[in-house]
Amino acid sequence: MVSQSEAVAPDLVLRSCRAEGHDGLVDVALAGGMIASVEEHVELAGRAELDLEGRLVSPAFVQPHIHLDKVGTLPLLGGNRSGTLAEAIEILHQVKRSSSVEDVAERAGVVIRQAVLTGTTRIRTHVDVDTVGGLTPLRGVVLAARRHADLCDIQVVAFPQEGVIRDPGTADLMDAAMREGADVVGGMPHWELDEASARAHIATCMNLAVAHDADVDMHIDETDDGASRTLSMLVDAVGEREWQGRVTAGHCCAMAAWDDAYAADVIARAAKARMHFVTNPATNLLLQGRADHEPRRRGLPRVKELLAAGLTVGCGQDCVQDGFYPFGAADQLQVALILCHAAQLSTPAELDQALDSVRSAAARLMGIRGYGLGRGCVADLVVLDATDAHEALRLQSPRRWVIRAGRVIAQTVTTSVLSRPEHED
Ligand SMILES: [Zn+2]
């Protein structure tokens, strides 16, 4: 017998879908912003219906690491006459000082919309908090997040880009940022000038997280220097404050230069602390190891070893058209493919892990509830012009529809046709 509540028409029914974990085609019913059912045939007609004609439906992509306050600044960074990093940083500071809240919000908005069009509906962004730009970058990104709240959930990380100890005043600004809309406490301890300062940086940020009951997501060891060991310091701090399961370490490039025994020890301790990791292979492959001759350090964390230790590894875009990286389409399917090349993921199980890094793993480290394609999950979905996820990864398939809380928010129509009249029969 069908109860009255079950008989209510779903808001949207997706017909003839392929879905991972299902052999044949399925229908997916969406109601109240959630997935109401995934079954061979949904009897009830939806208030709206979409025929997927055998296309793949997937949980929407998740972006765990991007810098929305810096995106699109590359054209403003033109005049680096010396080509040096020092001049690049000086120009970056000029842009940071001269940008208004509206400037930041407009540049961020372009990339948010691009992310949504390619199937991403959740974003975690780091935002500079320092004495150069004050809280302007934060206010700009928070404004952009508010303007796009119908399309995308955005978590903001207060990120002390210039250091905490070496940029006096930042600790107070970080506290203010957490009161003004930041959700997560960031950090960049390897940027401090000595080990004691790096430890003090971590302590300041961890204390702030405890005070605000916030998760932590730090830039860690983003350098080729194998002597950079702030991950170990962060693991210690997680244990001391019992912040297990709430801390993410991003970048972790120095891991590529560590010896195996040291890396194995730190990874085992990180697993005990239930830490999460984010790798950003696009930017780091481009930036790291530049001063090396061969063999060249690739600037990646030890992705396979982290996964083998049972750790959550998300994969981020990091940069879009800024002073560090001239590319970036805010497309997580592209980022997952770059990860496969960077971390040498090639078996079917490894391709699944790469896809997880921009879906369930990224969602887990961001604390997103109800992520997935099961009944009761939030109906944030992407429909790909592909029959399975590996094909979508290989061909970078178009995102036919993007669905947010049960509503279609974006669609892409592409047509490519060969013109060969002499071959027509
Ligand atoms: Zn970053």
Tell me the layout of helices and strands:
Elements: E1 12-17, E2 26-31, E3 34-39, E4 48-51, E5 56-59, E6 61-66, H1 85-98, H2 101-117, E7 120-128, H3 136-147, E8 153-159, H4 170-179, E9 184-185, H5 195-212, E10 216-220, H6 230-240, E11 247-251, H7 260-272, E12 276-279, H8 281-287, H9 303-308, E13 312-315, H10 332-342, H11 348-357, H12 360-365, E14 381-384, H13 389-395, E15 399-404, E16 407-411
Parallel strand pairs: 1-4, 6-7, 7-8, 8-9, 10-11, 11-12, 12-13
Antiparallel strand pairs: 1-2, 2-3, 5-14, 14-15, 15-16
Helix pairs in contact: 2-3, 4-5, 5-6, 10-11
The structure holds zinc ion.
Biggest sheet architecture = 4 strands, mixed
Spans of at least 5 consecutive residues whose pLDDT stays below 50 are 1-5
Shape: globular
What is the helix/strand order?
EEEEEEHHEHEHEHEHEHEHHEHHHEHEE
Q: Order of strands in the sheet with the most strands?
A: 3-2-1-4
Number of helices: 13
The tally of beta strands, per DSSP, is: 16
Structural category: alpha/beta
Radius of gyration: 22 Å
- Averaged pLDDT: 95
Strand content: 15-25%
Which small molecules are bound?
zinc ion
Distance between the termini: 54 Å
Portion of residues in helices?
Answer: 25-40%
